[in-house]
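okkk here we go again. third time trying to get the nicotinamide-adenine-dinucleotide bound version out, last two times i messed up the smiles copy paste (missing a bracket lol). double checked this time i swear
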Amino acid sequence: MTDNTRPVYAVIGSGYMGGGIAQVLAMSGADVRIADVDLDIAAGNRDRLIREAEQFAADGLFPAEAPALIAARITAATIEDAVSGATFIEEAVPEKIEIKHDTLRRISRAAAPDAIIGSNTSTILIGKLAEAVSNPERFLGVHFSNPAPFIPGVELIPHTTTDEAIIPVVEQIVAATGKESARVKDATGFVLNRLQYALFHEATQLVEEGVATPEDIDTIVRTTFGFRLPVFGPFAIADMAGLDVYAFCYASLQTEFPERFATPKILDDLVTAGKLGTKSGAGFLDVPADRTPELVAYRNKAYVAIKKLMDELGPAPIHAAATHNS
Ligand SMILES: NC(=O)c1ccc[n+]([C@@H]2O[C@H](COP(=O)([O-])OP(=O)(O)OC[C@H]3O[C@@H](n4cnc5c(N)ncnc54)[C@H](O)[C@@H]3O)[C@@H](O)[C@H]2O)c1
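finally!!
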């Protein structure tokens, strides 16, 4: 069943990420054509996406109508048929530049010249991928996170010649899926992976130095600063803590690690200018001082709600289940 009032999108590479992206685009109201190495694989992946949606709906993770919508709106096609007439095309083939370049060339040849093309690459520079795209001004990174059906954030990564006018169009496409996008420059690691790996790097140093075990580090991250992260990013947290406090902590960290924890210039400049975060009404983010009580109340409510949710969920089944000796 197709409905000519629905937008037509294509997802090329219908594996783990592409499959999840196709599901959310279909649930957002689009007809989605999926393609893969060949039509049989795409058709098999379509069946898998429908079965998965049935399970998600049975588990209360997708709306009850999702499996029927996905079955009606996702069709399997060849790459050429999938992209022909599509207004938005997402590439999600393996993270190998030769495969991505070949696929982007095929997409470029068969798609309308003004169709917007996104790549789900995690690590390859968008400018490098753009070399294989004709009309590269309609190309950008549209980086969904794993698992795509459930993680709400998407990085949008224009390269140097991406047409500014396509960004709001892609923002709308992402917003229609219920997800939130943020814009990032085309720099190695983008934002998500650069930050995620910075944290992982420091965590591995702590293990190697014998400061704490992986288990204890995970506990500390989950239950302390990581507990804030669904609500606040690092800049909101720093503003609330006080930027002068951050400057003192940096000085302390520098006694052992002078280079690794050198005080960032932008922090120093704000402190010197008397912008100390929410308590002074200005910091990295401009939270007016008169909204501080509202912010504190929101923060407290959020943390209590998250604690309740985590207690309801119980611990992640990472460790072997407790066994009972009879
Ligand atoms: N898995 C993750 O956690 C994750 C998270 C974010 C981004 N990504 C990125 O998403 C992209 C896809 O990753 P994935 O985990 O879904 O991989 P995957 O292996 O599950 O899926 C890739 C799909 O592309 C198909 N494919 C291979 N060659 C092809 C070709 N020439 N033409 C058409 N289809 C082809 C494969 O058959 C497969 O179905 C990669 O760029 C990856 O870096 C992955």
